[in-house]
Structures are given as C-alpha cells and as structure tokens.
Amino acid sequence: xxxxxAADYLTSFQRRRPKLGIETTARxxxxxxxxxxxxxxxQIAGSNGKGSTxxxxxxxxxxxxxxxxxxxxxxxxxxxxxxxxxxxxVPKSKVAEYAKEIGPCIDRLREDDDExxxxxxxxxxxxxxxxxxxxxxxxxxxxxxxxxxxxxxVDPVAGAVTSVSLEHTELLGDTIEExxxxxxxxxxxxxxLVTGADGAALDAIREVTDAISVGPPDSDPDVxxxxxxxxxxxxxxxxxxxxxxxxxxxxxxxxxHQATNAGVAATLARQVAxxxxxxxxxxxxxxxxxxRFEIMSTEPMIALxxxxxxxxxxxxxxxxxxxxxxxxxxxxxAMSDKAYDEMIDSLPGIATxxxxxxxxxxxxxxxxxxxxxxxxxxxxxxxxxxxxxxxxAIEAADPDDFVLVTGSLYAVAExxxxxxxxxxxxxxxxxxxxxxxxxxxxxxxxxDVDDPIGGMDGSGTAAGGAPNRESTTAEEIDRRLFxxxxxxxxxxxxxxxxxxxxxxxxxxxxxxxxKLVATVLGGTTAQFxxxxxxxxxxxxxxxxxxxxxxxxxxxxxxxxxxxLEPITDDGTAVMGILNVTPDSFHDGGEYEAHEAAVSRAEExxxxxxxIIDVGGESTRPGAEPxxxxxxxxxxxxxxxxxxAFDVPVSIDTRKAAVADAALEAGADIVNDVSGLADPxxxxxxxxxxxxxxxMHSLSVPVDxxxxxxxxxxxxxxxxxxxxxxLRAERAGIDREQIVIDPGCGFGKSASESFELIDRLGExxxxxxxxxxxxxxxxxxxxxxxxxxxxxxxxxxxxxxxADRGADVVRVHDVAENVAVIGAATGQLDPGN
Length: 832
Fold this sequence. Notes:
The chain has 832 residues and is of the alpha/beta class.
C-alpha cells in the first residue's frame, strides 16, 4: 500500500458514532498484538488544557532522557502530527505499513456492524508505532471524557484530569460532577490521579479515586502551581511547589491556567520517571505547542490562539490584558455548533474584526459571524479566506497594535501558513550557461541573429514571414522551478494565473499533508515576475506567496548578517575549527593548551580562514558532558586572545551560560549544534545582538541507538529548522542574523548527509545563509579510499557544497579547503 492510499484510508472513517466503549479499540489492539502492553502509558483528560499538559509532560520526560511517544488531537494540517516519537511525526512509510496491517481487522469489524471512528483507528496505530519504536512512555491525550474514550483501552501507569467544565453533555452528563466522575476513569490502579480541577469537580473526582490536586494557593491544593510574573512578551515565570520538591522556571505557554497545567505535568513526570527538578524546569521552558497563544511577531504583536469555547476565550481575554497595545484587530472563525456569540462577548474592545471561515464544512458562514461581530467591533468585514483575513488584519495594524487570530484551531492552522509555508527552489537554468551559450547573442538584439523564441515557427521568422528583431531578455529564457504547499483554493488560483502566463503548474494531494496541496510551479523568470504582480492583488492571502516569489527572484544576499559580512561577499567562506578540548573526534588534545590554540588560530587565518570557531566540549557520540565552568575556562581565554586578530570569532557551544561568557569575551557568533536545546540560548544571543548558527539536531551528543526515519531528509530538516527559526525570532533574534546548518552526521545516515549537501540550494527557502559542517566526519568512512583520515572525501564534499552555493563551510583543514573552493567556484586569489 502506498502512503497516499493509506492516508485516504485512515481519514475515511467516520468521525463520531453513537456507540460508546473501548471494545472496538481493544479488538484493533489485539489484532496488532496488544502493543499497548509494551509501553508505560499516561492518559491526560480534561475539558481544557489536556493538549498543553500532554506536550509539557513530553518535553519534561525527553529532557530527562526518556524516549516518549505522544498522541494528541486535533492536528493543524495532517493526522501524522498527532502521532509523534521523540518529537517527530510518524513516518509515511510506517503509516502505509500500519494501514495495510489493520485492514483485515477493519473488514471484520465492518462485518459485525462495528466500523471504528478515525480517532479509534488512529489510537490503535499510535500505540502500534510507539511499541515498534520501543518508547519508554506513551503520553495519550484523551478524546472525549474518560470512561469510554478509545485511549482507555490501555491500563495507565499515571493519569490526569486538567480541568472540568460543561461539555459534551449529551455523552458525559448534565452536571460538572457527572462529567468529572467520567473523566476520572483515567485514574491508574497504583497511583493517585493528578488534577487541576477544584471545587465540586475535585470533590466528585475524589469520590472515584485518590487524587493529587494542583493549582494556585487559594484553592488549597496538594501541589501549588502559580504564575509569578512575565519574563518577556513570550514567556512567563512560574513556581511549582510540591511535598519535598519545588521548581521555578520560565514557561512559553502563558497564563495562570498554564501554570496549573505545568504543575500537573511536573507531578506526572515525577510519578512516571522520578524526574529531577532541573529537568522539569528545562523541559517546561523548552515546550513548543503551535497555535496555543503563539506569539508570531512583536511589532505589531501577532498571536494565534485556538480557543474554541467561551471558557477558553475568557482566559484569552485575560492574556490580552497583559499587553499594552493601541487597537485590537481580530480575525475570527468558529464552527457553527459553537457558542461563538459568548466567545466574542468575552473578548476586549475590538477596533477591526475580520469574520472568516477555514476550509471546513462545519465552519460558520462569515456573513453570519460578521452580523454578530457588529455589536462588538468598530469595523467589521466578512472575508471568506482565513489567509486573506490574516493579511488584511496585519496590513491594518500599526506597530503598537495587536492582531489576534482565534475562534478555531482550524483557522489558526490556515493563518499559520504565513510563517511556515516555504517556497523551495528546486531548479534553475544557470545564468552563466545562458549568458555564454548561443542564445546569449539574442540578448544583444544583433541584426545578424534571427530570434526563434516567443511566437516563432522555429525558422527565425515571425507569423507574417518577416524576421523578428524584437529583443529577447535573459528573463525570458531563464527557467525556474519551485515547490510549495498551498490550501486547495490557493493552489487552484495560482495554477490558473500561471497557466494564463504561459507557465506550468502541477498539483497533487498524493503524499501531501491532509489539508494541503503539493504544488510545483515552472516557468521563466519573466513569467514568475508577472505572477508575483498578479498574486499581490489576487486575495486568498496570496500576497505572502507573491512576496516569497519576489525574494526568490531577486534575493538579498542572506549572508549579509552580523558577523558574516563582508566575509562571504566573494562566495563561500571558510570557518576554521579550533577545538580546545582533550577528546574531540579528530584533533582532541592537539590545541588544548592556550598557546597552541592561539597559534593554531593564527595558522588558519594565514591559510585563508574567514571565521574561527572555538569549541570547548566534544559532541562526538559517547562524549562525556563537560561542566559549564570547565567549558568557560577552556574557551574564554582563547577568545580574548583572538580579539587581536581581524576575523569574526564563533563559540561552538550548546550551553547558554557558556555562550554568554564567550560573547562577553568578544565572540561574534554562537554556533549551537544542539538546535537550541538550552531554552535560554536564543535570549542570550538576542541580548548580545549576536549572530546564531542554528543546526538541525535531534540529540547532542548523537545517540546512535535512536536513528530517525526521514520521508525526505531535506524537506523534513527544513520543516523542523523552520520551527526553530520561529522560536529564535520570538526570543528577539532577527532572521537576518541566523545561519542554518542542516546537521550532516547528526541523526542522519551517510547517504542522507550527502543528499543534504547535494540539495542545499533548496535550503534557500528558509531565507538564511547555509553552513555545511562535514569535515572528516564518519559519513565519509566508506569512501575514504586515500586512507587519509577522511580528508580527501571532505574536500570533495566542500567542492560540491561550494558549487551548490554554500555560504560557509566548517572545516579542520583550512588551506586545502580554501584551494578546493577556489577551484570549484573560481574564487581565486588575485595575487596568484
């Protein structure tokens, strides 16, 4: 079975049915061989906050070194997002495998008039995947209630109820107490239930099971969890105090309710894996949960929030009150069965409201929403497209205003495309090939050259028989190819416009995310310029795509970043590696002494190094961690000495405290190979107004026992790097100051690393300079025929990287790599 067939199959099942109970899910799990028995499962139920709590628990456990499977709902764009192992979605190949495997069981269930729902099938698939990946803990977000939810087919080792409110009364009961008792069925047999509920709901839960209550001090909880202030516009400060333990940390999920959820997650983590306070603090601060009061910009302030009921929007209103802004510009969409009038009523004063709807049948009509909004907003406009409504709101906002997209997670997903959609260049006619070929003569409009291009019959004559002397520009010959993902209506509109202009557009839902259309655009530069002009006024939020096209057609050199200009003006720069460590994989111990390190730096500069990268801790597989103070003592004296040389200095570290000390000592760049594993790192870089090398990495040091599966290593790396770029920008780092490194050798096979180098031109879609760090790595072991400790294949990799447009290569052997770059690109020393 192909992935697209499996995806269609898994999404074809009914979403709801009248039958309650876990029997259907249990039968599917039995067919899979009872995979849930191989994993310690944690169930998290609740009316609000269960998804946030699940995500926080996952982050904390992973920080403690626990392998975690995470099952949540709903997704933003694709059901694969709902099933994750150690942060990565279930691979397409596994989806196809599991769908084929479950098919006979589904057939039998249908014969018994017991066809499962999509959620039930996905629950079984998730547990199958978690078992196969041998995770330590599976965190399961409950769908509805607790007693009859599909996830209750497991016997949990820990469970939680985050909050209780009146919801799904037709299924769960008419009172808070009835609903609380239903949700409390997720309680484990051998441990107390953890809950953020209070009052009558807590009393009802304690009728069913022992419980640990979590909440603010005024509710007299067992674990006190309270928000103590705001660290910045994107983080609050929280305190969690339990019997014999306490945690103080910052949290990127804002609000007093999120402090309670964090307390629930921390208490669960201590039950499941006896996690220490430090890991809890770091894990909570590192949590990412897209679309849940997610700040996307600060000038103007832009937030995306999936609140979809009156209680959630009332909490949202409290968050808005924390910000000092002039006008609120609201993009609002809701499902037709929601109490959207109550939701709107709970929000603060609205200057401009854009009523809209996502591409979903259950969504309320924008005109109907607009009629309700007229009682609450100064100006109301009905806009059928969420991306278009988002663009209009942002355009209407001044820097000191606030733009809010809310009312539906489906709407938030469509709005979020603005920041996550990548326009990936996949092919282009090389300008030098065009300029120096026969067609180059056509650019000069010479009388002795016929023009067979554009309306010619191939003989050099126009339709009327006379030679065509109209000038042909390079843009009319220069061909380009881009790929992206668009919403269905956007893809149709783009295809129509590009086809009208003589270009080509191919669209397919095969293999694409569930709610998006894979779109490939082909044409000349001239055609794409016209397309960008058309899309700028076409609506459907396509102005953003137009801007992306314009940047790809006329790119501003992304290497014009602090610390990288003017060193990359002449092409690929060389970053020389200076390891002041005893145990680095290639040169550990050679330059550990201060004098040797400074002398080595001077040698590399004389050989042509443009940047010196100083590292005080090895990240090779199996390397022992180095205490922060030891690492600082190793690198700071060297960096201070290097300030006498006229080259930028980079600090290679994954610790924010080391980066801070190094930047104070004179470093210009932070090279973080962990992908911001230390949550404080982006704030340190922003405070120093430094540059950042952001590397894609799943674990540092590399864990060779946990090799990820990539569907397309380049596409997957770009998507994951883009989320980290958004995180860095939220902390205050300008994207112009960020360099990306795809992380060759870090959680990738040799062939995957080679592919990243070969296709690095596609990484231009992220809008940052690209660094390739490949020097003498084990990825070259199989091709080290010269037996020179992998130097020869490293030089070949450098030549390919330079040819493909790498802005920086990070290498041990500077002179040899400078020579190779010169040969590959023509970057020749004019003195030679």
